[in-house]
């Protein structure tokens, strides 16, 4: 089976195919393999053409395009963030993406990325924690138990062996949903009544709330020595989750500083406040965790290379699984300059 | 028939459906109606969120994202430009685009835009010429007879009544293809041996060549008084078609100056060289053509609002024609926070 049978055809992975692909590969294997690709691409950070995402903000939310290229492949993701969507039965975040051949500009893959983004975000969090959390970390508090929470739990279990999760959400039914979805998968699960209670005894704190505003999910007194904070939820200007004092006590690690300065927790800090780039920790240029009492913070906003990694990983699975359809997306006249002639021939065929 | 039957479904217009849509509406009517929408959107220029396109350049070509929004709808186009593609049997330019609801970020339409871009580029050229060419212009030289050439001819005929085309291409077979495709459609057609010969007696000169380099398609002596030049081919940094002296004798009209300064013919001129924005001519704020001896130049590079107009026009045709399919692009769990649960239920259903 060839992935690109005709020049006009682009393989398309629907939501249904993505679910089947994840299940065929296995959720844990998918997360582990995806994490490996994410890390591989972080390690060759300097080969990527990078730009902060292009955001179109409105009162209700944001629509973003996240392009990047390694000179051989080009990828971009379309993603929205609309916290009020949930009340209307819609996803806060939906996404789709495209991978293309830089050499000729033709798309090689169009795929849903709502599920894929949830997986890549979780895989990236876990990869970062591999370098930043204490080696013996087994317990994680998850503050915010929405659509991303179970993926975080599964990735931290698959990649770091975290087997205890302490859940808190301002809406208890979200925590109950999360606990239900994680049942029977080897976790010790506790639903907590407050963020304060959730972080007690946790080695890792993941914050993944959705409000589009400054919120203080974690206050300074809640964060003890040795903790790794995985701050996932703050991801646009004017949206943060952590009290500023926590940042000042932490060593801060980020994906792409020009984007994180605008969108991350560090928008609360001066523009020249020192942060470490995650890729430099992976390549050994910079240190990650250096002591068991250090507080580490991964101020994650999600970066285009992570989506690129996810697109590239999904594409690698297509031929073997056949879990895609063929989309007639590109005009392909027999003679490339004869686009108008193609229209005329279509007309003749219709008569 | 509703255009959005389910939250997970996005209407998709394939190349085949686009051709059928254009033919169902009629090529001339499609061009005229599309030109009206393009003009309507130019007239409300200030309501758009505008940015130069985001280009990823490589040795062989460019991949661009062109987003814009009017606060209610958001649109973007993915488009590549790879001049060498033609030799490999591929299109120099292929494109697809998405229109979305700003209120919730959900895509409303995914469509091929290779054919649609050819139509919108031609419609935009003709709309500009309506304001900039002499009223009695009936004859047009077309320099560069590739995929865009017939669309230009048809748009100028449908919208301005141009009925004589004088064709030149360095590859005569391209001119012959163009002449063949335009036969029997009410044109007087002449294939010329040189650009010099093509422009003789022409009221309008359209340059639409594809080389990704500085080229001098038109020299100063070839452009007489009263001419309108429709410069379509130069559309990236380092790619121009006109000798600088022509620019200095012309009144120059552009779409979006920050983008045209980088990509258009005026990249040959100082950054503060005076140009007029097309939308201001349409609204009457600025003058277009003021005399029959003036040389006008539409330095067109293609702007995101034109694609937005095209997306919005195509969407308006979907319900009545049914010429689309339904794409399972967006994850739509029954409970929006239960994305992981959707995966689990899919797993249960597969067993």
Relevant terms:
homodimer, 351 residues, ornithine cyclodeaminase, domain 1, 2 domains, 11 helices, 17 strands, globular, disordered N terminus, ODC_Mu_crystall (chains A, B), NAD(P)-bd_dom_sf (chains A, B), Ornithine cyclodeaminase (chains A, B), NAD (chains A, B)
Task: Characterise the protein shown here.
2 copies of one chain form a homodimer. Chain A has helices spanning 15-25, 27-43, 114-132, 149-160, 172-182, 195-199, 244-249, 257-263, 278-282, 304-321, 339-350, and strands spanning 9-13, 54-57, 62-69, 73-81, 95-101, 107-112, 139-143, 164-168, 188-191, 204-207, 214-218, 228-231, 240-242, 251-254, 276-277, 296-299, 325-328. Chain A is an alpha/beta fold. In chain A, the strands form 3 sheets. In chain A, strands 9-8-7-10-12-16-14-15 form an 8-stranded parallel sheet. In chain A, strands 2-3-4-5-6-1-17 form a 7-stranded mixed sheet. In chain A, helix 1 packs across helix 2. Chain A is globular and about 75 Å long. Residues 1-5 of chain A have low confidence and may be disordered. The interface between A and B is large, with 83 and 84 residues. Chains A, B: Keywords: NAD.
Short description:
The first copy, chain A, is an alpha/beta fold. Chain A has helices at 15-25, 27-43, 114-132, 149-160, 172-182, 195-199, 244-249, 257-263, 278-282, 304-321, 339-350; strands spanning 9-13, 54-57, 62-69, 73-81, 95-101, 107-112, 139-143, 164-168, 188-191, 204-207, 214-218, 228-231, 240-242, 251-254, 276-277, 296-299, 325-328.
């Amino acid at each position: 089976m060839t992935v690109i049978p005709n020049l006009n055809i682009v393989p398309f992975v629907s939501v249904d195919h993505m679910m089947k692909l994840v299940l065929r590969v296995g959720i844990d294997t998918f997360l582990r393999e995806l994490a490996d690709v994410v890390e591989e691409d972080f390690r060759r950070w300097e080969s990527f053409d990078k730009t902060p995402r292009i955001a179109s903000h409105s009162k209700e939310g944001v629509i973003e395009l996240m392009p990047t290229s390694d000179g051989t492949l080009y990828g971009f993701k379309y993603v929205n963030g609309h916290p009020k969507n949930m009340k209307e039965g819609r996803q806060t975040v939906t996404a789709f993406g495209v991978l293309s051949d830089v050499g000729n500009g033709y798309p090689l893959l169009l795929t849903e990325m709502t599920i894929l983004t949830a997986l890549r975000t979780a895989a990236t969090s876990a990869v970062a924690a591999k370098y930043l959390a204490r080696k013996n970390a087994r317990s994680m508090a998850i503050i915010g138990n929405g659509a991303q929470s179970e993926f975080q739990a599964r990735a931290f279990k698959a990649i770091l062996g975290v087997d205890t999760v302490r859940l808190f959400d301002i809406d208890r039914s979200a925590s109950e949903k999360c606990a239900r979805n994680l049942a029977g998968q080897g976790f010790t699960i506790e639903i907590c009544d407050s963020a304060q209670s959730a972080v007690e005894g946790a080695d890792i704190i993941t914050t993944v709330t959705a409000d589009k505003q400054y919120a203080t999910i974690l206050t300074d007194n809640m964060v003890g020595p040795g903790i790794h904070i995985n701050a996932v939820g703050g991801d646009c200007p004017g949206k943060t989750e952590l009290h500023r004092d926590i940042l000042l006590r932490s060593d801060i690690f980020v994906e792409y500083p020009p984007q994180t300065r605008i969108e991350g927790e560090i928008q609360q800090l001066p523009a020249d406040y020192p942060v470490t780039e995650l890729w430099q920790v992976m390549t050994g240029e910079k240190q990650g965790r250096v002591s068991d009492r250090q507080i580490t913070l991964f101020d994650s906003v999600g970066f285009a290379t992570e989506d690129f990694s996810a697109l590239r990983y999904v594409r690698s699975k297509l031929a073997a699984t056949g879990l895609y359809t063929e989309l007639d997306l590109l005009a392909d006249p027999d003679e490339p300059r004869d686009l108008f002639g193609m229209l005329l021939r279509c007309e003749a065929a219709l008569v």
